[in-house]
Amino acid sequence: MTQPIAKSASPRVGFVSLGCPKALVDSERILTQLKVEGYDLVPSYDDADVVVVNTCGFIDSAVAESLDAIGEAMAENGKVIVTGCLGKREEVIREAHPGVLSISGPQDYASVMSAVHSALPPKHDPFVDLVPRRHSDEAADVGIKLTPKHYAYLKISEGCNHRCSFCIIPSMRGDLVSRPVDQVLREAEKLAMGGVRELLVISQDTSAYGVDLRYAEREWRGRAWQTRMKALCEGLSELGIWTRLHYVYPYPHVDDVIPLMAETGPDGMRRLLPYLDIPFQHANPRILKLMKRPGAVDRTLERIRRWREICPDITIRSTFIVGFPGETDGEFEQLLDFLEEAQLDRVGAFAYSPVEGAAANGLPDPVPEELKQERLARFMELQADISTARLEAKVGTVQRCLVDAIDGELAIARSMADAPEIDGLVQIQNGFEAGLKPGEFVDVEILGSDEHDLYGEVAFDD
């Protein structure tokens, strides 16, 4: 009797993904293309024939983390392909790890796949090889996701046209390159059909979406849509799921999407989540000019007031830098005054740290490290008080939440005000009793709060 021929194992790739959500999307696209071409994705160095490390290189701590990850992969496996933001500084990687097989920059999917092919040729399958391979952009529409099943990042563009003096992202990711609006909307539609309940719109500058394409119109669902932020938001609002905007540069036309945040669809769902992630960075005009950021602080406060008039429950998240070169005591106090008046819901802050290649490194009058840390502590103490008070004001309200996980008797969820990984949580005390599952929407009566999180229960009907 003829024995069946044993099928040889598929080539195996290990993968390490570091950095921000934009880098995570790059990882998803590479992993999708690997899967399309027949590679097995494995979770350990020992099982892998080659390892891909997607790096971050924005700040010194991220560079160190990336180099450590490359070093670990080299020590444990020995065959390593490097990509991502740190790949734009090849000499730094080569100096630390001269034996890596290949180095490429961010979103350079073709170079990564070429390096994988060289190190580990794809397995020949006469049936599969007759099928044309998809380009990675096409594969990404239905590809592998590294997030939980119920939410996903939706990257709408690459690169940035700004030249903020503290930032080196344009030197790593290049100028703005927007994805055509129909491509983005088709991907979003497929994600929604596949069970995604929340889309997190990301880019380097979401507000600038489409400017490089001159807002070209494309067709989706039988009508024309401009490649523009407002039109994109209107299209995404038709999907009946949560859409959350990140990395929104404070252009005037941001005002145009606020009314959409106040509207509800026929199912009671907000057409666009009342959430705006908008990095103001500072509040003193001189410091903002040195940062090469918009500096009309009074206008910013007026816009925030107007946004809240149109959409009273809007959540505003922002980031700030304290101790920027030349920042005086008075200018820092102005930043605290802004924080007090703006009453922002969610705030992150960083003590200024020089980044290799950033223009701000050459500015005079650096702030001493001890003083930077003192200012950062004062800033965060004030914001903690503001955050605590704003969350306390929600006690007694009912909040629509999305369940992320079940932990014993608790359901861990997020409200419309909470982005995953960076904001707070809603702990639903009777979540298990209520039979909740990850990916479900539920209305929660808020019974308590602290500096970061809310606590509540599902309100059962009598």
TrEMBL record:
A Pfam family that the UniProt record links to this protein: Radical_SAM
Residues that, per the record, bind [4Fe-4S] cluster 2: 160, 164, 167
All copies of domain TRAM, residue ranges: 392-460
Keyword Zinc-finger assigned: no
Any GO molecular function: protein methylthiotransferase activity
Radical SAM core domain sequence ranges: 146-389
Cofactor binding mode and count: Binds 2 [4Fe-4S] clusters. One cluster is coordinated with 3 cysteines and an exchangeable S-adenosyl-L-methionine.
Domain of life: Bacteria
Record NCBIfam families: 30S ribosomal protein S12 methylthiotransferase RimO (TIGR01125), MiaB/RimO family radical SAM methylthiotransferase (TIGR00089)
Name of the protein: Ribosomal protein uS12 methylthiotransferase RimO
Originating gene: rimO
